[in-house]
Hints:
Chains A, B: It holds the Pfam family cNMP_binding. Chain A is of the alpha+beta class. The first copy, chain A, has a domain at 2-108: Jelly Rolls (Sandwich), CATH 2.60.120.10. Chain A has helices at residues 2-10, 17-24, 82-87, 108-117, 120-145, 148-158, 168-175, 179-190; strands spanning 28-32, 37-39, 47-53, 55-61, 67-74, 78-79, 94-97, 101-107. The first copy, chain A, is globular, with a radius of gyration of 18 Å. The N and C termini of chain A lie far apart (43 Å). The interface between A and B is large, with 37 and 37 residues.
Amino acid sequence: MSALLFKNIEKHIQITDEEFEQFSRNFQLRKVKKKDFLLRAGEICRYEAFVTKGCFKVYYLNENGTQQILYFATEDWWATDIDSFTNQIPAILHIEALEDCEILCINKPDKDALFEQLPKVEKLFRIMNQRTLVAFQRRVISSIGKTATERYMEFTAKYPDLENRLTQLQIAAYLGITHEFLNKIKKNISGN
Amino acid sequence: MSALLFKNIEKHIQITDEEFEQFSRNFQLRKVKKKDFLLRAGEICRYEAFVTKGCFKVYYLNENGTQQILYFATEDWWATDIDSFTNQIPAILHIEALEDCEILCINKPDKDALFEQLPKVEKLFRIMNQRTLVAFQRRVISSIGKTATERYMEFTAKYPDLENRLTQLQIAAYLGITHEFLNKIKKNISGN
């Protein structure tokens, strides 16, 4: 289970087996059933979760009750409401399991303590935050400046293996369009 | 000039005068005239800039030639195309001075070396990246899930002193609406 976490970390920093042992002791394994919530808007986000199995949708529910999916967190991704977790304020995001999931999660006090115990974890999260920033910058630009077709192409590039695990409605909610419009885009792309 | 940078850093980490001296040696002071570009899309973003005077708009030009302003970087903010700077790939953002500006800028090799020389800089940028992530998360949610009025309210909360320094067109380009619609929103809010 934590082999995936080890590989994820090893991409960014050099870490010995002992250090990883110390690192991973702060994580708890949890199983989350399909359709269960890891977080609901209004709650405080207590955990950052590393997904080892399954897929979550991380979304915002607007005042009309429409789901706006920010991102999907699947194997080898992290799921959290960064605003709520960092500032320990009520979340505005929902995190819901789309499949039966397994996660490794760390709470804020343990994460804060980890920075003291293992200073190289600062580098790790500095780099991971940087990568998430790049992803968020791309997401902002997409959502404010790109066409639905461009957004769909970006989705398939970002999540190359995910399309078959999601419904058309979920993909449309990520793209901010109706699923009828998504069908049209897919038809246009395939030239039918 | 660098007193502002010192104060900015001191919010996040404890740093001695000697360490700050070592830190700030990696920054160069630059003046950028109103309407000049710090970065154009297609160039590689060589610098991260800390703004000590003036205001920049950081924007994306969509295929219709419409400016979509991602954020304004004014005194005490950082301006960069994080994707281009981190990965040294062509930028998709333009960074343009809206006023005569002064910045302190650091290039990538110097920033990378700084992490080795002064490990506490890892903590600094981990925390700053985290804060930027929170801001980006809010921006994504606004742009995909909130009404124009809500986005305008968020703008005034985020930039409490900036409205008078910007044109209505610039604010509208940040909100992703026409300036006629912005006028309508402002009239509704003031109850006229």
